[in-house]
Amino acid sequence: MEQQLSQQLQGAHDVLYNALGSQIQSCLGQSGWPPPLVTPKAGIGQPAVDPSQLFNPAQADAVNMLQRLMLALTKLQLASEPGLLTAATQPGPSGGLAPMTDAPLLWMAQQLAASLTTQLLEVFGPSTPGNPGALDNPDLMLGTVHRLAMENGPRIDFLQGVIQALELHGTYQIGVEFTRALREAVKQLLRQTKLPEVAAAGSRDLWLAWIDALIAFEGSLGRSGLLGCYWEVEESTDLPVLLLRGSTLSVLGEDPAWMDAWLEAEAAAATNQVEAILYSEKGWGPGQQLLVIEEGQQAWQVELWPPRAAEEVVSLVESLLGRLRYIPQPAAQERYLSGAVSAVLQQAHGRILRMLQQADVFRDITSYAWLPRVCMCICFCHYIEVQLQDMYDDAQVMVTRLLDSQQQQQRQQQQQQQHDQPGQTNGRTNGFTDGVTHDNNSDASNQQQQQQQM
């Protein structure tokens, strides 16, 4: 009986959702949506719709109906996904918007992005040479998505009233949700066509090109505030970790074959760089850090005396660790560390070990010929050890902050659950008229105060 009732409720839910979605798409079409996918400059075709005609005053009736339908759709989502309210109670940094990563994506943002997602799949799905979706030009697809989010976020700002009416504006913002929906479209493209085809091509350079393009794409979204983060950041490595959890690079961790191919490409590129560093004569000269030492200062007065090769190896490790931030799956992070970062350190360790063994074979470690090399090896190892320890300490601080943030969110959720006991009335789902919230409890309180004054 219970299972039958559950199936009937789910059926009614699906019917209502499909009906609302159909009407929403009709109203969007009457309002000039979707906007052009590409501009004429891109050479892919002429835009079918003038962007200036989107949601203009002449379409007031369609726009008002769209707001009402979006309100009804979001109410349905509230009833279906209780986590939506929990996410909306989480404060952002300094009272602002929090980077939206784990919170449920608003259905009305999915409706807005649905037609654009279909067009993106049609235009950029085929990967034949000369096509806009060619594998050797990932920047065209990602740049198009970034432009769509940047240009159309302000055009749909009138739908923020729906979020405010449902008291979800503490965290949710329609422009951010629209960007998240477009980000999901990119992930869909990566899963369905791009990554399988890159894997089939078997080109390490192609893998690295796509990784670099995706990192640049995530950085551009974060720096421009399209994902709800308005902190001033100059580099992708400065972006908050929470903002990167739902990044497009997370798709790589969904398939071990893709992860293996990426790690192989990273390891091969890093190996070539390490060989160039360690087998260069200039690499064993004084590093940049030594160039700023005061004239006449003795070596024993300086804590670190690294050769240039040590500094360049540390810089390479730091660049590889920077990519780790974009992988949300712990297992995939471990594989990346062992497959790319550890390979660099092992190669450097092997080179130093061979140099010392060679000196030991000739029993000549302290001779004038070998002593400078042995000293540089010792300085190399000392510098690498100190820098790795500093990286580890920084990582520990970051993990501690994340754990503190998670514990704080758990406490807030518990407090919210205790506050929202069954039977209490709030203004989220009652008393809506024309999309405006009407708080019944507030009216009752005002009436009681007026009676007391009389």
Overview of the structural elements:
This protein is mostly helical. Helix content is 62%, strand content 0%. It contains 14 helices and no strands. It starts with a helix and ends with a helix. The model is unreliable at 41-49, 91-100, 230-234 and 421-454 (pLDDT under 50).
Radius of gyration computed on alpha carbons:
29 Å
Total DSSP E strands: 0
Shape verdict:
elongated
Structural class: mainly alpha
Strand residue content? under 5%
How helical, in percent, are the residues? 55-70%
| Spans where pLDDT lies below 50 across 5 or more residues | 41-49, 91-100, 230-234, 421-454
**What about the largest sheet?**
none
End-to-end gap: 55 Å
Q: Counting H and I runs of at least 4 residues, what is the number of helices?
A: 14
- The ordered H/E elements are HHHHHHHHHHHHHH
- Mean pLDDT over the residues: 77
Keywords:
454 residues; disordered C terminus; mainly alpha; 14 helices
Question: Helices, strands, pairings?
Answer:
Elements: H1 2-30, H2 60-80, H3 83-88, H4 107-124, H5 138-152, H6 160-165, H7 174-201, H8 204-223, H9 241-244, H10 256-278, H11 308-324, H12 330-361, H13 371-419, H14 440-453
Helix pairs in contact: 1-2, 4-7, 5-7, 5-8, 8-10, 10-11, 10-12, 11-12, 11-13, 12-13
